[in-house]
Amino acid sequence: MNPIYERIRKQAIKITSDFPPADFYTDYEEHVEFSSRFFYSDPVVCELRDFVTQKIDNDFGHGMDHAGKVALDAGALMLIEGEQNGYSDQSLTHHVRMAQCAGLLHDIKRKHKKHAKEGAMYAGKVLAAYPFSSDDVTDICAAIENHEAFGKALESKTREGALLSDCLYDSDKFRWGPDNFTHTVWDMVSYANIPVKKFVELYPKGITFLGKIKDTFRTPTGKIYGPQFIDLGLSIGEALYRYIKTEFAEYL
Known about the structure:
globular
């Protein structure tokens, strides 16, 4: 990584450490912990996690670290929303499994131009070897195809499929908060070898774009807690920009 980006990233991590975690993780601590236990113990999820670990690219800001976080929060969201929709215990467990598998696979084709659509097609082939029904696979693939921001979402055939899609989307967009400034941005600029001057010039536009995510969350829980993730990201991003303008004024 460019030494200047290293310095900026270190400052971003320092700034982020001054902020509290998003309320989602404290208000739904039990659901988050359940999702974590499930992620590391369910045989189906564990097998797929090992597969994705071997296949996913980790140099673009959307590798295994990102996929794992999305899977964990998608599982927690599914548990929350499923309980509120009256899912049975057996159904909840199954849909948490589906949500986590969707999270693991959602960016498996991230470097491709139409990564959501191509990722969905790839997921369909992979999941054919797993203990899911054809309807389950269809719902997981539709969720993956629907996870991009500002795109037109496919209409799900069932309420369960729609909820799965919404949980995956919201979990992925949670990552646009603090994670964006501690991990994602720096991996992306390093991979693309973006000159520092260009990065600084585009920075304000990026912050504006980030703010637009606040109104796109889809689940009831996501609509409540998602905007705070983005607000945290915006606060971190604005504080970081002040640092950049002070320390790297020659690039402005």
